[in-house]
Amino acid sequence: MSNVIETADVWVEKVNAQDVEGVLEVSDPNIELIGPRGAGFGHDLLVQWMENTGVNLHTITRYAAGQRVVYEQEAVWENQDGHVIVYTFMEIRDGKVTRLERFDNIDDAFSTSGLNENHKLE
Q: Measured on CA atoms in the order 82, 7, 95, 22, is the torsion positive or negative?
């Protein structure tokens, strides 16, 4: 489990640093990205997402079981005032993020991930 959390934490750290190569290193080449604007696959889409969002994520709470994590995060986008709470669901296999999905509420994140409050990490 700690390996899964470590991978998720490194992924977030690299996104916050706008370290595209670092994010790609911990992302499966066929990563599935799902968000408010749709879904897609692959490193090219991930690079495009990073270049367009300039997002910074501050993790508040972590939930995890098996290969799945949900992070409650404060998100701030480049050139925007204020922040929003988002819930990021990641599936991780062999040290790589294979799926990333953003939710606006925890119930939807839990429904998709199969996690719940009992999976909260202290």
A: positive
Q: Which of 10, 3, 5 lies closest to 62, judged by CA?
A: 5
In angstroms, the CA 63 to CA 5 distance is 9
Q: Please state, in angstroms and rounded to a whole number, the distance separating the CA atoms of residues 87 and 1.
A: 19
Tokens 């790609």 — which residue? 24
Instruction: Give tens-digit pLDDT for 70-113.
Output: 999 999 987 677 789 999 999 999 999 999 999 999 999 999 99
Nearest 5°: CA angle at 33, between 31 and 34?
A: 150
Query: pTM of whole model > 0.90?
Result: yes
* Distance from C-alpha of 90 to C-alpha of 62, rounded to nearest angstrom: 11
